[in-house]
Specification:
The protein is built from 3 helices and 10 strands, in the order E-E-E-E-H-E-E-E-H-E-E-H-E. By secondary structure, the chain is mainly β. The chain has one domain. Strands 1, 2, 3, 4, 5, 6, 8 and 10 form an 8-stranded mixed β-sheet that branches. The longest helix is centred in the last third of the chain and has 7 residues. It is globular, with a radius of gyration of 16 Å. The N and C termini lie far apart (50 Å).
Length: 137
């Protein structure tokens, strides 16, 4: 098989993981082979994350610091539990841009506009979720 030199990568540019989760100060991610890896903080996560299955975030933490590390998000499951301060609508749209989200949980968390800080109407959240099956609020 021949491959054009412009489409061939010497090193794949993304760090692909199935799942990313935080629980307090501890961060965990699962590689594509299902192996679980634990980290002390989100600074130890690679800066080129491609998340293919799930994001599960608990408690207060700096969401923007994690968001800056995500390059591609194809996640089917998004769970936000007591995330503080809030999740911005632009970040939420980026995480759901693939249109693959089937299950969303927003428990104790609020999605807000960055411009004025108002909560995003539920209808606008649904517009970002064309394949949604289950929502937990």
């Amino acid at each position: 098989m021949k491959i054009c030199k412009f489409f061939k990568h010497r090193n794949f540019p993304y760090f692909v993981v199935q799942k990313v989760e935080n629980n307090g100060d501890r961060w965990e991610y699962w590689s594509l082979d299902g192996e679980k890896h634990s980290l002390e903080n989100n600074e130890d996560l690679p800066n080129n994350l491609w998340i293919v299955k799930e994001i599960r975030l608990y408690r207060e933490f700096n969401f923007t610091a994690l968001f800056q590390k995500i390059v591609v998000c194809d996640a089917k499951y998004l769970y936000f539990h007591d995330c503080s301060p809030t999740i911005s609508y632009n970040e939420f749209k980026y995480l759901t841009a693939s249109g693959n989200v089937e299950d969303l949980a927003i428990c104790g968390s609020v999605i807000r506009y960055e411009e004025n800080g108002e909560a995003v109407p539920f209808e606008e959240i649904l517009e970002c979720l064309p394949k949604i099956i289950a929502i937990t609020l």
